[in-house]
Amino acid sequence: MAHHSSAIKRARQNLKRRARNRHQRSTLRTALKKYRDLLTAQKREEAASEYTSVQKAIDHAVSKGLIHRNAAARYKSRLAAALKKLQAA
Description:
single chain; mainly alpha
């Protein structure tokens, strides 16, 4: 455990930030899983409406620094391609 007051404060801040990051990352993963489940279940309309909320969750994660913007673009591109493929079938 830290002994200096500044190190104690830093440890306290790290705990708060870690909890916040874990919650936001979990929320993002849940949204992605829900969307992918809709794709595998071949539910076109639900997946199309869910895509906007998944896109919003990904953008939110980027703004909070959870994922890199290029990773977010890759996620969105792949999810959109999967939706387009489902709608074409």
